Amino acid sequence: MKFAILTGIVAGPLVVLAQLNALAKDAGLLYFGTAVSPSDSSDSAYYKYENDVKNFGQYTPDNAQKWDATEPSKGRFSYGQADSIVSRALSNKMLMRCHTLVWYSQLPSWVSSGSWTKDSMTSVMESHISNVMGHFKGKCYAWDVVNEALEDNGSYRQNPFLKALGDSYFAVAFKFAAAADPAAKLYYNDYNLEYFPVKADGAVRIVKLVQAAGVPIHGVGLQAHMTVGRTPSRENLTWTLNKYTALGLDVAYTELDIRIKPLPSNASSIEAQAKEYVAMVGSCLDVPRCVGITVWGFSDAHSWIPQTFSGAGDSCLFDKSTKPKPAFSSVSSLLASASGKRPPWNTASPPTGAPVPTTMITATTSAAVTSTAAATSTVAATSAAATKSTA
Ligand code: G3I
Fold it and tell me: Annotated catalytic, 148?
């Protein structure tokens, strides 16, 4: 049953709505998921919808597994909020994407302000990764082992790990992660890979560094924090995903939202948003090793965007009253039309990789360049805002 009569969450008459995870699995994806926060339970209708495995088959904790939450002081580990999210997911028969271990942001000050040698940083990374992953061992389908290690120009983002270990920290992190939970899929995760080929190639460089060290890495997560009017074409999104599947990896959209700026949104921007959500989901369907899609929250009433990007918002599949938007209907229709077109996802033996991409699809190169150029100002704002928001 892929459609449900949804009451409560939607004002007015009963609405028959698609159920995204059920549709996604029928279309050959492993899951359609959402980020979750402990505060979600304060909105009963939102929380009820979030808890239905036919709507979402996967959770990502938005903050509860980050270093500042799990090891606030050296050697003292704390998992309260993360445990409740993980146990809820498992009782709902959902998968967990666990997030995140090595990241420049939301570090406790004992890490961010410490003076580290190569040996002392290696030891702290091993302790953090082995304790945190060990605590959740067997419960995380995937881990974002390293998050946002690149600047938008493809250079390495400065952080305590790079300062102490240079670019060896990538393989070091993945080595400890593989030892801590050999069954977990280990991902590199970043934003704006969709917009900037130089950044996407930076992620290729990181993957190759880890592979050259003989250390497992299983996937690249593209966060997919997009802006209406600047989302690349479905073909170019597919081209970017295939940069990683060509290396023998899985890919996933891990934090999808498509913000509208300027506000207020209108019929035109809302319709454009629907088309761009279709391009995002469609590009995942186009790539056999694209595992699934996670939205970073599903209602405009509970999105991180407005407090991070002034003048932007309305980014989600549901509006501020948590009523479905055209984007929800368009994504549902796309997934329904893809039913049975890919075999069900087989975690034990994922589909084979894609052909090695040669050049960006010329037919839309100009569009991509335009979108890239146009995105530049967004990205500058993104980086500044992200830095501000995560400072
Ligand atoms: O925990 C403190 C609380 O004690 C304090 O009272 C409160 C008010 O200042 O702040 C709380 O910390 C907030 C934290 O979320 C936990 O709620 C931070 O201010 C706030 O900046 C932080 O925002 C999170 C952001 O990451 C930080 O970079 C967002 O909720 C979270 O959705 C967002 O998620 C990231 C992904 O992890 C990585 N990709 C980008 C994505 C969006 O930035």
Answer: yes
- Contact at 8 Å (CB) between 143 and 101? yes
Phi/psi-derived region of residue 151, left when phi > 0, alpha when psi is between -120 and 50, beta in every other case: beta
Q: Output the pTM of the full model.
A: 0.90
Q: Specify the pLDDT at position 390.
A: 32
Residue 217: which residues within 8 A CB-CB, separation 6 or more?
145, 174, 186, 187, 188, 207, 210, 211, 249
Q: Rounded to the nearest 10 degrees, how much is the dihedral formed by the CA atoms of 42, 37, 35, 78?
A: -160
CA 27 to centroid of ligand 1, rounded, Å: 33
Kindly give the distance from the C-alpha atom of residue 93 to the centroid of ligand 1, in angstroms, as a whole number: 27
Token pair recorded at residue 222: 């593209």
Active site residue 255: yes
- The Cα 302–Cα 261 span in angstroms is 17
CA of 105 to the centre of ligand 1 (A): 9
Pairing of strands 290-295, 31-36: parallel
CATH number of the domain at 20-386, out of 3.20.20.80, 3.40.50.1820, 3.40.50.300, 1.10.600.10? 3.20.20.80
Report the nearest atom of ligand 1 relative to the CA of 225. 40
Give ligand 1 pocket residues (Cβ under 6 A).
62-63, 105-106, 223, 255, 304, 386, 389-390
Cα 40 to Cα 102: distance, rounded to the nearest angstrom: 26
Closest by Cα among 166, 158, 160, 150 to 204: 150
List, for the chain, all residue ranges whose pLDDT scores fall below the cut of 50: 1, 5-8, 10-14, 362-391
The answer to whether 111 and 72 are in contact (CB under 8 A) is no
Token representation of residue 44? 């009963």
pLDDT for the residue 94: 98
Q: Catalytic pick from 148, 194, 235, 276?
A: 148
57 membership: H or E segment, kind and range: none
What is the model's pLDDT at position 346? 79
What letter does residue 361 receive in the DSSP assignment? -
pLDDT given at position 80: 93
Selection from 132, 126, 77 nearest residue 100 by Cα: 132
Q: What is the pLDDT of residue 366?
A: 40
Q: Which of 50, 71, 194, 255 is catalytic?
A: 255
Residue 213 has a pLDDT of 98
What is the Å distance from ligand 1's center to 63 Cα? Answer: 6
